[in-house]
Design brief:
Number of strands: 3
Helix content: 55-70%
CATH class of the largest domain: Mainly Alpha
Number of domains: 2
Distance between the termini: 96 Å
Order of helices and strands: HEHHHHHHHEEHHHHHHH
CATH topology of the largest domain: Rhomboid-like fold
CATH architecture of the largest domain: Up-down Bundle
């Protein structure tokens, strides 16, 4: 039996995310790459002969007793140093449901966390939370000889970071109700809070259940990754992103009314920062007064020109018979030409 970190999200958690309303600024290339690598490794793993598939879990999965040196693998299974399995185990999966569930969670939540960190820091963060996930699982059962495989320890770290960055985000969830599947929009704080409580419950129940009846779910890895994500996000996020108190999202107003909080960055966004910048660029009162005076002078000049045009154009034939009036008319006509 192999412990598969991540399957509890799909066996015990009936909330299946399909979309979030949280757009990103940068392209999440690391998230795309991680999904691609996991899929490629899965295709390779299950292209092997059936009797070899289980062996790959022992070869590349984390085995607590082997990693701590209290047990050893047969020579044909010990193909890599034990410490490297902390990395290789993150890309192994125990089946299509295991892979699909993990990649769905990484697709929905990973891009926003990468957006808050940048590509390089997100990759380091992902690996560190994966290590932390393995560490807690090993601490809970150091003598285990069962391999632990799967990406959800690291993905749980991503979920922990998302909880503090975007607790107000709206997540579209598929929720099975008996034989009917409904789509609900739920705040991230509720989705991830339920996930966290399920892992705590799983850790408690696994401590009361014999290992061979534990259902193959590494709850300790989930919990370790999630806690690591919560603790590390402050060190990895970019300066423009804020950490929120997720408890604030449980109030009626914040759960139902508040929009998703977006960072203040150099990338243009319609937010308070841009409004402040626009206010800072408003002309000073004295500048506005000078502009108004200039506009008034222009209008007066235009009115004068219009009046003079009317005066000239309304001269009748009798007035032009007088030589003095004819000189005045010629002089006004010349001024009219200048005004026009």
């Amino acid at each position: 039996m192999m412990k598969d970190p991540g399957t509890s999200a799909y066996r015990g958690n009936l909330l299946i995310p399909i979309h979030d309303d949280n757009p990103t600024v940068i392209k999440p290339w690391v998230t795309y790459a991680l999904i691609a690598v996991n899929v490629v490794v899965f295709v390779w793993q299950y292209s092997l002969p059936p009797e070899t598939i289980a062996a790959t879990a022992y070869q590349l999965g984390v085995i607590p007793a082997v990693l701590l040196g209290t047990d050893t693998l047969p020579a044909d299974l010990a193909i890599v140093p034990a410490w490297t399995t902390l990395i290789t185990s993150m890309f192994m999966h125990g089946g299509l449901l295991h892979l699909g569930g993990n990649m769905l969670y990484l697709w929905i939540f990973g891009n926003n966390v990468e957006d808050a960190m940048g590509h390089t820091r997100f990759l380091v963060f992902y690996l560190l939370t994966g290590f932390a996930a393995s560490a807690l699982q090993i601490a809970m059962d150091p003598d285990s000889t069962i391999p632990v495989i799967g990406a959800s320890g690291a993905i749980s770290g991503v979920l922990g970071a998302y909880l503090l960055l975007y607790p107000h985000a709206i997540i579209k969830m598929l929720v099975p109700i008996f034989i009917i599947i409904r789509v609900f929009k739920i705040r991230a704080v509720w989705v991830l809070g339920i996930y966290f409580l399920l892992q705590i419950g799983g850790v408690i129940s696994s401590g009361l259940t014999p290992e061979d009846e534990g259902g193959g779910i590494a709850y300790g890895a989930h919990l370790g990754g999630f806690i690591a994500g919560v603790l590390l996000i402050g060190f990895f996020k970019s300066n423009g992103f804020r950490i929120h108190n997720p408890l604030s999202a449980f109030s009626r107003q914040s759960v139902l009314d508040q929009p998703v909080a977006r960072p203040v960055t150099d990338t243009p966004h319609v937010d308070d920062g841009m409004i402040d910048a626009a206010a800072a660029n408003e002309p000073a009162p004295e500048t506005l007064a000078a502009s108004n005076d200039e506009l008034t002078r222009d209008q007066n000049q235009q009115n004068l020109g219009a009046h003079q045009k009317s005066s000239v154009r309304n001269v009748d034939a009798d007035d032009l018979a007088d030589p003095d009036n004819l000189d005045d008319y010629s002089r006004d006509r010349n001024r009219l030409t200048d005004l026009e």
